[in-house]
Specification:
The complex is a heterodimer.
Chain A: H1 2-15, H2 22-35, H3 40-51, H4 55-69, H5 75-83, H6 119-135, H7 147-161, H8 163-166, H9 178-220, H10 228-253, E1 260-261, H11 263-270, E2 282-283, E3 291-297, H12 303-315, E4 322-328, E5 332-334, H13 336-341, H14 344-355, H15 362-373, E6 381-386, H16 398-407, E7 410-415, H17 429-432, E8 438-441, H18 445-459
Parallel strand pairs in A: 3-4, 3-6, 6-7, 7-8
Antiparallel strand pairs in A: 1-2, 4-5
Chain B: H1 3-16, H2 23-35, E1 39-42, H3 49-60, E2 64-68, H4 75-78, E3 80-82, H5 84-93, H6 95-102, H7 107-116, E4 128-130, H8 132-138, E5 144-148, H9 155-167, E6 169-172, E7 176-179, E8 185-190, H10 198-202, E9 205-208, H11 214-224, H12 230-243, H13 254-266, H14 274-284, H15 288-294, H16 298-303
Parallel strand pairs in B: 1-8, 1-9, 2-5, 5-8
Antiparallel strand pairs in B: 3-4, 6-7
The chains are: A alpha/beta, B alpha/beta.
């Protein structure tokens, strides 16, 4: 029974994007077996330690826990929390409105019923409500449109189990007695309870479903067409994609540090030791780490893409070579330090607030970049430029870019515009093409992901 | 349930060792002992990750075996190595013995056959040089194994750890499997400089230690530097808490708070003043930029004290 509750909880965690493996499930079972369900705060810490395995998962876990177990804010819990100064940043999950959650709470001690149902009568009704909920499989509810259906089913199931409430004489038929008044109060209280129960279960199921769907759609959506709401969701999605990409490329990144045995030298040395290779010589290959320069146009038209690229590259962390990031409107400014010293999303927002939103001047920006950093560019350097190549008829900086092209290992241009529009109007992409190894379109997240995937493949 | 008293007892025991544990820490430690699982501790530097291992070792009266991770750490430094020089020396010394063993053997085949009859003496436990991980496994008494800053090691090393973390055993190709005589309490710490592999995380209990809130920090300072007068302690903790809300390169951690408290005691200070803070700020902050950022704010931060 108790395990059943735990399994359902883990199902919800998975649903909310916290991966839980079968082995962790077994661990969680042992945790609940040794801690029990009667100390919510202990249970929370215990389950957190074996189910939420990263910092990013802590908050979603706490939310899920609070929603699922909907812990009552009893005096006992509060006293416990006050007594032990918790080092946790977040407070122990307590749901102020207490109450019930799905059929899960049959195992968790609950507060007495509130509202119309007082004392043991209230508890009895709560229990009846839970039983009815599990009977009609309320936890299957997925979409808001099903709300009324489940509410009705719930009340019907309840009526079947509690015939007394279903067959209430209407007020017109019978004189209003104390008894009937109390009954109709109970009934309306039950209705609100049922509605609340359905809503809470829906909130638990629905959010995750919607999120999965939204993420799948967002990867293909043209970034330019996204509204602010969706753009705000992007950093989280990028973090996920970057993690996947990083784990795919991590294997390629390994190289033998020791190198191969230098047989000749080893044998020569071993003569002194009677032919025994006492000292071994290794042919170590000194691998120069490649370097990545990213130059992002942050003028109004392409700022969003630059933001995403910066987020993506820095989320890739240690699989990507040493990266120096620059942003430009008409002057290239190095922002590597800002990106490293602060939380990523915050740093990016700061950079854009400080330097962003001007007209792009490719000429001065690329010339300036080459003048300052041209000397550092060599056969191990990859340069990525993100921009639409629209120079407003001004200088293009093509001369400098060509010099960069000749020195660097790879010059890539990521263009957020669709390929059909390259060269139209003031777009100088066709001219830039002569000074780049490759110009690629990156209008959606999926394209960006694919480009970085290929890039990592080449770099390693 | 018996868990709650046991966890409270753990908190008390740790407090006796000078480590003030939050319920989350104590619960995880309790589970680690019950389930025989390693603990992976994450959190900013200086919040007491390594200290927890020290406290556990003192509390359990178990030897602390520490493995400091760094880039390039491999099994010959972490797990075991063969005593090559000893092997070579033995080969030289035993050369004459070899003649006796082979004496009377007619032909090459017979000689090889005779040699085969001997055990593989050179790859036995006698020539095994145990490194920290193997030490922890071989220890007669259950040890506390601290694998510090696992995020600094390479990915290969993480894979190497999996066998030890999951089954408390080590496979040595030449010898076979060495099982732990007494299961050690394993504590891994990470500063989160990179994401650890899921395989490693799966085998561990996860514990995140954040910066402490002011009441807990005051208790920690009290336990570590009992000489600090109450008023000074309150001022000091309040000041540090406020500094943590600023945008600094490196936020001061508990260890810095304690260092600062100790230095203030050395200076015989009774309360914080702007000059005193200016002079001792370098104990608390480790970057020149941070100090420059905080210095003009000192009097405001001090006023923020109750």
């Amino acid at each position: 029974m108790a395990d059943d509750v735990l399994l359902r909880f883990i199902g919800h965690l998975r649903h909310h994007g916290i991966p839980v493996s079968p082995a962790e499930t077994l661990d969680a079972m042992r945790v609940t077996a040794s801690l029990g369900y009667d100390q919510p705060a202990l249970l929370f810490h215990g389950l957190q330690s074996c189910l939420a395995k990263s910092q990013a998962e802590q908050q979603p876990f706490a939310d899920c826990f609070a929603k699922f177990f909907a812990l009552p804010n009893t005096g006992q819990t509060a006293a416990h929390d006050d007594g032990d100064t918790s080092a946790q940043g977040e407070s122990t999950p307590k749901d102020a409105d207490g109450g019930q959650q799905g059929s899960a709470n049959t195992a968790v001690p609950n507060t007495a019923g509130r509202g119309g149902g007082a004392g043991s009568e209230g508890q009895r009704l709560q229990l009846a409500l839970m039983e009815a909920a599990s009977q009609i499989e309320l936890n299957q509810i997925r979409y808001p449109t099903q709300r009324n259906l489940y509410r009705r089913r719930l009340l019907q199931a309840l009526a079947k189990a509690q015939p007394g409430f279903a067959a209430l004489p209407s007020a017109a038929e019978a004189p209003e007695t104390q008894q009937s008044k109390w009954l109709s109060q109970q009934q309306s209280w039950l209705q609100t309870q049922a509605a609340a129960l359905v809503d809470r279960q829906l909130a638990l199921n629905n959010q995750a479903d919607l999120r999965e769907y939204r993420e799948a759609r967002m990867r293909d959506m043209a970034i330019g067409a996204m509204d602010a709401y969706h753009r705000n969701q992007l950093p989280e999605l990028i973090r996920k994609l970057a993690k996947k990409l990083a784990s795919r490329h991590r294997q390629h990144y390994r190289h033998s540090r020791q190198g191969r045995l230098n047989l000749g030298k080893t044998i020569k040395q071993s003569i002194a030791y009677d032919g025994i290779p006492f000292r071994r010589h290794w042919q170590s290959t000194r691998k120069t780490r490649s370097q990545l320069y990213v130059l992002c146009d942050i003028s109004g038209s392409v700022a969003t893409w630059s933001e995403l690229l910066l987020l993506f590259l820095h989320a890739l962390g240690d699989v990507i070579p040493k990266t120096r990031s620059f942003v430009f409107c008409d002057q290239s400014i190095e922002v590597t330090d800002t990106l490293q010293s602060r939380a990523l999303a915050q740093a990016v927002a700061e950079i854009f607030a400080e330097h962003g939103m001007g007209g792009s001047g490719y000429g001065t920006a690329i010339d300036g970049f080459f003048a300052n950093h041209g000397a550092d560019i060599n056969r191990h350097t990859t340069v990525i430029i993100l921009g639409d190549g629209r120079c407003n008829g001004a200088e293009t900086g093509l001369g400098s870019l060509r010099k960069i092209y000749q020195r660097a290992r790879l010059v890539l241009w990521f263009n957020p515009e669709a390929e059909s529009r390259w060269g139209s109007g003031d777009s100088e992409i066709p001219r830039f093409r002569s000074a780049c190894h490759h110009i690629a379109e990156c209008s959606s997240l999926r394209q960006l992901e694919r480009l970085l995937d290929e890039l990592l493949g080449i770099l390693h | 349930m018996t868990a709650k008293p046991a966890i409270d007892a753990l908190i008390t025991d740790l407090a006796n060792q000078g480590y003030i544990a939050s319920p989350a820490i104590a619960t995880t430690l309790f589970l680690a002992q019950q389930l025989a699982r390693p603990i992976l501790i994450e959190g900013p530097p200086g919040v007491g990750k390594t200290e927890l291992a020290n406290a556990c070792s003192a509390m359990l009266a178990a030897p602390l075996i520490r493995l400091q991770c760094y880039e390039g750490l491999d099994e010959s430094k972490a797990l075991y190595d063969w005593k090559y020089s000893k092997q070579l020396l033995y080969v030289q010394v035993l050369k004459e013995q070899l003649q006796e063993v082979l004496g009377g053997a007619s032909g090459l085949d017979a000689a090889v056959e005779r040699l085969h009859n001997f055990d593989d003496i050179f790859y036995s436990e006698r020539f095994l040089e145990p490194r920290p991980l193997l030490h922890a496994i071989q220890s007669e008494q259950a040890a506390v194994l601290l694998i510090d800053e696992i995020d600094k090691a390479d990915y290969e090393f993480e894979s190497l750890l999996l066998e030890i973390l999951a089954d408390f055993q080590v496979s040595i190709p030449e010898i076979g499997r060495l099982k732990a005589k007494a299961k050690p309490l394993v504590i891994l710490t990470s500063n989160n400089t990179r994401e650890l592999s899921d395989a490693l995380k799966r085998r561990c209990l996860h514990l995140y230690i954040p910066f402490p809130e002011s009441r807990l920090e005051a208790r920690i300072v009290h336990s570590r530097v009992p000489e600090v007068p109450d008023q000074l302690r309150e001022q000091l903790v309040n000041f540090v808490q406020q500094v943590r809300e600023m945008d600094l390169k490196k936020l001061p951690a508990i260890s810095e708070t304690i260092d600062w408290a100790r230095s203030l005691i050395l200076l015989h200070s009774q309360s914080l003043s702007t000059e005193l803070v200016t002079d001792t700020l370098n104990v608390l902050l480790k970057y020149e930029e941070d100090i420059e950022m905080v210095t003009p704010e000192i009097s405001r931060l001090l006023k923020g004290n109750p």
